[in-house]
Amino acid sequence: MSEATTGAVNVGQQRVRNASPAAAxxxxxxxxxxxxxxxxxxxxGGPEGQEDVIPFLRNVTRGRGIxxxxxxxxxxxxxxxxxxxxxxxxxxxxxxxLEAELADRGIDLPVIWGNRNWDPYLADALRDAHAxxxxxxxxxxxxxxxxxxxxxxxxEDFAAALAETGLEGExxxxxxxxxxxxxxxxxxxxxxxxxxxAEVTTANPEIDLTTEVEVLFTTHSIPTADAGKxxxxxxxxxxxxxxxxxxxxxxxxVMAAVDSAEGVPWQLVFQSRSGPPxxxxxxxxxxxxxxxxxxxxxxxxxxxxxxxxxxHMEVMWDLDNEAMESCREAGIxxxxxxxxxxxxxxxxxxxxxxxxxxxxTPGSARPATTELGPWYDVCRPGCCENARLGFRPALAGLAP
Length: 400
Ligand SMILES: CC1=C(CCC(=O)O)c2cc3nc(cc4[nH]c(cc5[nH]c(cc1n2)c(C)c5CCC(=O)O)c(CCC(=O)O)c4C)C(CCC(=O)O)=C3C
Ligand SMILES: [Fe+2]
Fold this sequence. Notes:
By secondary structure, the protein is of the alpha/beta class. The protein has helices at 3-17, 53-61, 68-80, 87-104, 122-131, 148-165, 183-203, 224-228, 241-257, 286-291, 313-330, 344-359, and strands at residues 38-43, 111-115, 136-141, 172-175, 213-220, 266-271, 300-304, 333-336. The strands form two sheets. Strands 2-1-3-4 form a four-stranded parallel beta sheet, with helices on both faces. Strands 6-5-7-8 form a four-stranded parallel beta sheet, sandwiched between helices. Helix 5 (122-131) packs across helix 6 (148-165), helix 7 (183-203) crosses helix 9 (241-257) and helix 7 (183-203) runs antiparallel to helix 12.
């Protein structure tokens, strides 16, 4: 990066990071260059052996009152796979793929990996980054949509990790925009839906795509209270908040991009709910929708996991095991479309998201496939707050 770029950075950084609490109108897209010196790949983390499972689940559920019963149930999913979540291996692969893409493009930025809930922890990653001389990080979180769990919690944990390491004021952490509608994230689902529909017609040559097949776009359910607070309050997304609106918009884009999907019925469905039964979460549940498929004349479903970036536990267990079992019980054909993983379009899209921040690409020149995007670089005040836990400080957004 040039000297000129370095100079411009400080101006942009000050403006964003020192936004006054009253500044609800700070920039949505940072249109000045920033000289980032490393990429922070931030993820969830997962256990890597039987002895990690309970400590990991305690980290995840700290302060949240998730009943032990449910913890045991989740532990069981992990135990089934030897106590190993696939997520860390996937992040190692993603890190290597990002490094290869950066090298291909001649961009000299190291990728530092840190997790919210398991080793390598964010705090350790930040300590190492600082010791290596890095000061200005651009974070990519492995989660595409707006909600507490998928956006704000990362921003809060960045702030907490800076406090824990005493690196407040030493390290800047910005975050790329939520990328639910970035062409690189959407492309693998478009390819997957096309292939999934082809698989259904090959296996069932007589099937009528417009009456007997349903596309189920699936994502992680969240408490309706969190959903309602997802995205900036000012935008009035209604009950499901920005979270649900973003998923609907992406589903529409994917449907419209696949010729063979024309006229095929589709729904947005939810999976992997937890919490007490008394607490409302987004519905319908994917398994209920599959169970009712035969009475609706549906003989096959194509499951498109638009809520997920890789085949982690929610995909491996809740879809490939549970939802497929629901399909067998209902006597219908189920096909599950791949997640982006390390798809070249996705990996190069993530690098594009970093570059638009380095360059300071104006919002009007940013790629986005829905009317909702390009999403904010700098989250709005109160964006995606947790409805139950209340306020915790967060980076990469306007105060408070
Ligand atoms: C929206 C969302 C994503 C983003 C989608 C994405 O980024 O993919 C996500 C990702 C993940 N969630 C994961 C694991 C867990 N999430 C939990 C709990 C919860 N998640 C929630 C939501 C989300 N979670 C919510 C609202 C809760 C309840 C908390 C509360 O009540 O406040 C629990 C606790 C036990 C339980 O409740 O199930 C676990 C173990 C893993 C790792 C998987 C692996 O190991 O491969 C990943 C990537
Ligand atoms: Fe989760």
